[in-house]
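Predict structure. Chain length: 478.
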Amino acid sequence: MAMGIILKHKLLSNQVPDDHKAPLEGWISVKAKKTIKKNRELREEFGGVIPDQLSREDFEKYQLFRVREQMKYAEENVPYYRNKFKDAGIRPEDIRTYDDLTKIPLTEPKDLAESSMLFYGVSTTKMLREFTTTGTTGHRKSIGFTMNDLLSKIDIISSALKGVGMKKSDSLHVMFPMVIAWDPSIMLVTACNILGYGSSVCSDVSIEEQIKTIKEAGSTYIIGLPSFIYRVTTLMEKGIDLKSLGIKKIISTSEPLSESRRHILEEAWGCKVIDVWGMTEFGLACAIECDEQNGLHTDEANMLLEVIDPETGEHVPAGQKGELVVTGLNSEGTVLIRYRTRDIVALLDPPCPCGMHYNKRLVKPSGRLDLQTKVGMGYKVYPVLFDEAIFIDPVVLDYVLYISKEGYKDILTFEIETKNPSEDLEKRIVDSVSSIMEISDGIQDDLIAIPRVKFVSSESDEYKVKAKKIVDLRENFD
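Prediction complete.
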C-alpha cells in the first residue's frame, strides 16, 4: 500500500486527465515542462516563460538540453563515455543543434556486450533490477535499472495504456510465455494497479490455460508476443468464437508484427491490433501505435531518436529509411548515448490525425542489419520480409527458411508448420514469396530457383520459440 502511494505521487501520468485526447503526448509535455521549470539554463532558452503548448521546436530544445545533461552525467559517472568523449574531443556544450549530434561517436552493441559494467552510471548496489539479454544478436548484455529508471518506464506504460483507450472498467491480460530476459508483466501490472485497471497474467504455453484466464479475469485488452497470440488464434478459432470474449484491443510487442498476421488477428478477434516497438536496453516500452496504425508514437521524453545512413553515419531525411540510433535522455543505471539499434526504420514528422501535434512517429522496423541475408545478386532479405508472404492463411502456424545452393542458384526451402497441408496452400505460398521484389528479381536473373515448400506437422499445440527464422546453409557465402 505504501509503495502504491509513493508511485501515485511520483508518476507524472497521473497529472494527465483521463479524457485527454492524446494521453501519451500529454505525459511527454508534463515531463518536458517540469524539466524546463527546474533548470535555469533551459528556462532562459524559452525567455523565462514556460509555454502553455509545446511546439516541435520547443520540444527539441528540451531534448538537446537533456542530451547535454546526460553527457555531463556520463562524463562524471560512466567510464565508457568518459574515455569516449575525451578521445573524440567532444564536450556537452558542443551540442546545440540536431546536426551537432553527429559529432558524438556512435556506440556499438558489441561494446555494451563486451563491457556492460563500463556503461553503469551507479554502483551495482544501487541498481534495483539487472537483466541479462542476448536479444536477436546472440551477444550477451547486462542492463541495469535504478528505481527512477523503472518509475519512468511505469510512467510511460501508464500513459500508453490510457492512450490505447483503457478505462477503470477494463482489464489487461498479459501473455508472455517462456519469459527469459525479464518479465514485462511486473511493470504492466503495476501500471494497471496504479490506474485502477484490472489485470491478469498467464505465462503458461498452454492455449487452454490462456483462454481460461482471459474468461475468468473478464479481460478486455490483451498484450503479448504476436507469434504466441497468433498461435492461440489459429488453434482456437474453430473451437471458440474469439469475438465473443469481448476483447477491445490487442497490443503486439517484443517481436515484429507483419501486416498479414495483423489482418488475421483482427478478423478473428474483431478488434484492432496495435504494434509496440522496444528494446531491453531502453526498458522495452519505447513506441506504440495509435488507432491510425500509421507509425508508432515514441517516448521522446526519455529517448532521442535519429535515423542515419549506416554506411556514412549521416542523418537521412524524414520518411527515408536508415538505421535507428537512440540516446537515453534520463537514464541513471545503464547509460547509452547514440546507441546503434541495427533496426531499419524511418521517422515521420508530426502531426498525426490522432491528435498528437509534435511527437514523431517511428515507421515499424522492416528488418535488422545484423539479421540480413543476401540472396541472388546480393539482394538483402530479412525475416520480416518473409513474414508478410508466409502468413497468408491461418492454417500456417510458423515457418523456417533454409537457404542452400545448387550450382550457381540459391535454393529457398520454406519449412511450413501446419495441420492442414495442401497443394493449394503450397502454390499460394510459392506465388506469394515469388512476388517479393528481391526474390522475383533473383528468379529473373536466374540466380534464385523457384521457392520450395516442405510441410511439417506440429508435434503439439504448445508454443515453442524458434531460435532462427532464416538458416543459411551455404558455405563461405558473403
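Summary: The CA atoms of residues 234 and 394 lie 5 Å apart.
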